[in-house]
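Continuing from the previous page of notes. For each protein in this section, the sequence appears first, followed by its structure tokens. Read the first protein now.
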Amino acid sequence: MRPALIGFAALAALCLAGCPSNTCFLKVCSGANCRCSISSCSEGAAFDTKQSRCRCLKGFFLVGGQCLEQQAASAFCGKGFYWDGNAGGCARGSCKPGDELDESTGMCISQQKVNEVATQMGVPVGQGQKLGCPAGQKLVIDGDKAACVPLAASCAPDEAWTGQACAKVGQCPNGAVFDTAKGQCVQYAQGGDTSELRVDVLQWASANYGPNGGTGTTAFCGQFAKKPWSFGVVEGQTALVRVQVMLSFPGNEVAKGVVQTTTVFGASGNPVPQKGAAEVEAAARSVFALLAHGGGRASAATASTTVTCAVINAQKPVPVPATGGV
């Protein structure tokens, strides 16, 4: 028994310093069949001895470096999207022909309601027509307002704009997330079954909201950039907003963490309208929910990053043929 006890003692000492991710510490084999008894896999995952890495258990999906069940995965995707387990990513919900998605609720609204919005904006929609936008722009309905925004603002949270289209970002293993600014997966969590998860909150904040002083991520900015009217941005105008995202972790417990934002216009430094500030705050909480879900111990009591997001109201929506438009 003494060698085994020494082994576990050494393992415990290693994990106090931070268990390496995707690692099996105790493999049990019966002939050619092996299983991992102790690993650094996070909740919802198990070590696959054939592939030598942690993999999500059945019914869980790998999202942002964590294994989530369907409901939590769809919540990450946000309003108007859902997690498509077969495709392995966020997918936009579809409405029946003529209906449109209301970004304020994430629900489809009838063509009649869309036409009412058009009428309020002074856009007459005739027979055989619908409200739409020119090629290269996306119609966004937000309550009683509508806007044409760049297609880049329509990407899902797990996508990035390539300059031509929205494309899925790279899939990363447990405890890692794709950092679009660096163009690679970065590790933000260490530990697992044998010790409490240790989370590098500074690394996580930079990868998920954007690097300090840089451009915000699609997963963050994209949630509110498509709502220009909330920021008082009228047709044909663009505003750069600067967002300071502040995270705090009471007792260094990630699950008890809170997020706050301060949003101002980049040009003037003046605060954005209250409705716009609320949209930014909601987006920050939506992104943060993924981290809080995984729990663990934060590497610091606080973390922050300040990023810039472009809010573009390209033009006023126009009538388009009911069988065409964007």
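Done with the first. The second protein uses the same format. Note its length before scrolling.
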Amino acid sequence: MPTISCPEVTLPLLNRTVAGQALACRLSAYKNQPNTVVLALPRGGVPVAIEIASALGALLDVMVVRKLGAPAFPELALGAIASGNIRVFNHEVIHTYGITPQQIEMIARHEQTELERREQYYRAHRPLLNLSQKTVILVDDGIATGASLQAAIEALRLQKPKKIIVAVAVAAQATLQKFTHIVDEVVCLHSSEHFLSVSQWYDDFSPVSDEQVIQCLNAYWCNDSLQARA
């Protein structure tokens, strides 16, 4: 297959759609390859993944993961949970902020309820794709601590895929380096040592609602021509 020249990425990224188009270009080796599945981490990963799946002609699904926010600082991840009773913890955060096992369990139970709600809401009665021996491209709009992505990878491994590729628009450099050792391939548009948040690398980082996620997924799932090419 001839090499495709991808345009240089301009920062900050305009929006998640542009991020997805740029990542799709860098993943062009997987275009129209059988047994390739694009998995989005909702909510922000869905608009990115839609562009990748469309460009590659791949099947699309979601991997629901919930961050466990620290009690006094909910934006700070003490860990994450994913389907399959997967729990990943950031022990440094837990130790630094003196978070007790009782607090962790209370937070995890709450987020488990929300995880199950979202899985049912996003997918309705649509069954999870069989990912055994598939090439899976796991997509998010960016990674800071990486707790959610790590939980997703551990849950994904239970389904025995052939290959796991992480595709993210932006990432903290140290976090990204960690993932190069636990998956088969990492594709990232931009990583930085000076990474405060994912939003700093986007012009438009508007929140993605549950309704937008469902609309995107249903539009793609109803497009039989796209799904048939995978």
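What the second structure shows: The mean pLDDT is 91. The two ends are 18 Å apart (CA to CA). We return to this in next week's lecture.
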